[in-house]
Amino acid sequence: MSPLLRPMSLVGLAAVALLPVLIHAILPGSEKYYLHLGVQILLWSFIYTSWALMGRFGLTSLGHGAFTGIGAYATVLLWNYGGITPWIGIPVGIVVATIVGVLVGYPCFRFRIAGHYFALLTLALTEFVRLCIVGLRDYTGGSLGTQPARAGDGISLIAAQFEPNRTLAFYIAFALWVLGLYVWLKVDASMDRYALDAASQDEDASASVGINVTRERLKITALSAAMCALGGAVFAQYQMYIAPDTIAGLGISLNMVFAAIAGGIWVLLGPTVGAVFTQVLAEGLRVVIQGSATMKSIFGASALALDQLIYGLLLVLFIIYMPNGILGTAQAWWQRRRGRGSS
Amino acid sequence: MDCQLDVFFLEAIINGLLLAGLLALLALGLNLIFGVIDVVWICYAELVMVGMYGMNYAYKGGVPFVLAAVFAILLVAFSGALLHFLVIRPVLDTPPINQLLVTGGVLFLLQAAATMAFGIEFKNLGIRLGSFNFADMSFSWARILAFLVALAGALALWLFLSRTFIGTAIRAISQDRQIMPLMGVDSRRLYLITSAIGGGLAGLAAVLMVLQYDIYPQIGLQFGPLIFMICVLGGLGNMIGGFIAAFIISQFIAVGSSCFHTEWGYAVAFLFFMVAIFIRPQGLFGSKS
């Protein structure tokens, strides 16, 4: 039985699925805003989970901003310039991102480019893709970004557009999030996971017992890249606007790494906690500052950077004092406590 | 594709050469830090930004240029030491990738702090050094100066490392981190000094950059990836390699930008970098370890 079907998990999933109903009942006035927040959290949770899928095996990629970017731009450009429906465009984006991931991953794993070098090399990939997007400005709108052409009133099956209906958007994001968790558990239960774990501990030793390290790493990279491309494409369809700063580029790559680490990359719901944490932090600070006259007069327009400041500070503290992330630390603390109680 | 072998092409090549000096200087500090302490400061370009703002405000506050430059260099040197003391030291014994990520947090922090303190406007020192014209080609003095100072800075670092006691100790500890402390060397002090010197080099680069570029909080993202690329291409920790890599990369940028759009020059440079690393993972001039 899949762990997702255990009673506790089902209760949890049902609770998240019922959130739109709850929001509708309690906060009818600002329903759209809270649903938007929910969609953002779920979409980014999916993307962070996809990153952590390979990040937890010591493959710290700073290149996943390239994959989300490829997914988003492939989908939108095919729709805008070729009239090709996102139902084909999204798979094309996924395939392209996977190919790019394998093309970059193969030499990396084959020649054992790891640690700093892997991070900096994938950073170069992110920059390369961003520069291509900016360079093709006649099609992509350069750094100003572009929009998918709206079909009718904004809700269309053929154009895969759903943004005005926030409840629908919520359930699409919810489905993606569940998919992410499902894939994580699938990987977790597979032999590949043990192979990758072993390889991240000691590459030589695991190769000597017959693990094809390059192949295992390529598999997880391809999976992770494909999921990020899917996440990027759906994000584009929801936002109805894409720009290098919002879906591709170094900032996005770093956000992915940090949110996942802040939440905890070793546990299933860690990246999700990271997404909740970062989104709520940013939104909470924005609301507090906008709502208070004193805060506004102190920080003025620069208040927008305050969340980034706190975010940066927290990241530093997290990596120094809580390298296992919020959820990882909480879980370890809980287990210690329970262990002491029973003994 | 208006790319012809004419005088403008030559101008682009020479301008690329001048840019290389600056990039090499930027890479030098990062390389020193990596070679000695074995950490990558992802926020290195943001330290340069700190120096640029320091320079900007000191100069506009009425401090003469040279004194403002000294102030900026000391400011960044101090920031480098502080970064090591507060952020790097606690994670020195954890997996290397943590050290890279922790400085990534500092990157966000510094960028946001600069946005809040100085706003997002582009700032300019307002110094115009004019340009040097020769046979239809034009080179700005700011670039020529940057090139010469970068060479002088590299030379000074080399002399320091090879001729002074502390420099020798730094070179020794970069060769064997375990043995040196047993020989009675205080590695913590040496790391702190190295961080300050690395910061100082970033400060020197900042002084040269304010003459050529506008200052804004995101400027680090424009230069950061380039600097890492140059360091890795030259072989992390290999300073001569870093110099040669800076020349290669800047030629891609300069020539690519003169023939096509600016981004394509950069894009080709990044592509070249990736392919080069696949062929020689230890960097073009790195030694196999």
Describe this structure in words.
The complex is a heterodimer of chains A (about 350) and B (about 290). Helices cover about 75% and strands about 0% of the residues of chain A. By secondary structure, chain A is mainly α. Chain A has one domain: Orthogonal Bundle (ABC transporter involved in vitamin B12 uptake, BtuC), CATH 1.10.3470. The mean pLDDT of chain A is about 85. Chain B is globular, with a radius of gyration of 19 Å. The longest helix of chain B has about 30 residues, at about 5-35. The model of chain B has no long low-confidence stretch (mean pLDDT about 85). A two-stranded antiparallel sheet of chain B has the order 1-2. Chain B has eleven helices and two strands, in the order ααααββααααααα. In chain B, a hairpin with a 2-residue loop joins β1 and β2. In chain B, α1 (about 5-35) packs parallel to α5 (about 140-165) and α1 (about 5-35) packs across α9 (about 220-235). Chains A and B meet through α5, α6, α13 and α16 of A and α4, α9 and α11 of B.
How many distinct folded domains of chain A?
1
Helix content of chain A: over 70%
Which value, in Å, is the CA radius of gyration of chain A? 21 Å
Q: Mind telling me the C-alpha Rg of chain B?
A: 19 Å
Q: What is the CATH third-level topology name of chain A?
A: ABC transporter involved in vitamin B12 uptake, BtuC
Distance between the termini of chain B: 43 Å
Find the structural class of chain A using helix and strand composition: mainly alpha
Per DSSP, what share of the residues of chain A sits in E-state strands of 2 or more residues?
under 5%
**Which structural class do you get from the secondary structure elements of chain B?**
mainly alpha
The CATH class of chain B, by name, is Mainly Alpha
CATH architecture of chain B: Orthogonal Bundle
Assembly level: heterodimer
Helix content, binned percent of chain B: over 70%
Q: Provide the CATH top-level class of chain A.
A: Mainly Alpha
CATH fold call of chain B:
ABC transporter involved in vitamin B12 uptake, BtuC
